[in-house]
Fold Ribokinase.
Amino acid sequence: MQQDIQVTIVGSSNVDITALMARLPGPGETVLADSYQLSPGGKGANQALAAQLAGAATEFIGAVGNDSHSAIALGQLEDAGVKLDRVARTEQPTGVAIIQVDSAAENSIAVISGANSTVTAQAVQAAGAIEGILVLQGEIPASGIKAAMDGATQRIVLNLAPVIELDREYLLKANPLVVNEHEAALILQQLDGSETMSTEAEPVIAQKLMAHGLASLVITLGANGCLVAEQGSGIQQLPAVKVKAVDTTGAGDAFTGAVAARLANGDDLVQAAEFAGKFAALTVQAHGAQASYPRSLQNL
């Protein structure tokens, strides 16, 4: 029998085409890569797998094409037991991400939305009721994000990555908003109505975001851990787990999915972020996004 859904992800699903190389090319430059691989990705699908593996019964709502890439895009979610009944099949091709990773584990990513562009308000409303904690990202249309938020019955985890224009009232529904330092500055720019992105330190940006009325906020800082802020509780910095990173692709998604899973299982936000930091640290020690996610929680 299907377990009651604890986390629902409405979002994107891609096939990642990853090229491994000594260094990333500059503008107009060609660099020979050492190898490449095809693997499942997309921020929504990554977060769905992470939430499931981190201990929450999870559903993914999104869209793929009627093409051979769809099996790659959904394969690891299906194997892990993520509920996929409401993934639409569209005439648009399955989304693709073209990823370059260098020897220092830095990456650059270009995303072709494909079927993800069809996850609009109409599609989300047609999918029906949303169960459990809702998780959203910025790789689907803003109308789909807003429709999902309107249908949410529990708290909303918003990972607005990439940062897209979203009405203030919807930004403030996030609890928490989970972003990296660059995304945090861009969102503050949106909320301030400023033409200039803030270059202030992350704790200051966190304070200013919270002053706009966010219920809670997590700013991920890579090797420097993360900042956690909640109304009435101030800002707390959590250290990162020290590991040797070989590929950071999908680590932020692993973090977000794990946060949602632990919140669904009763952790407070600091506890959830601490767990998610450990979960994400395991993922950067192997190549790929979903393939690097831990299948066991014994080391956490």
Observations:
- The chain has one domain: 7-291.
- The longest helix spans residues 269-283.
- The domain at 7-291 is CATH 3.40.1190.20 (UDP-N-acetylmuramoyl-L-alanine:D-glutamate ligase).
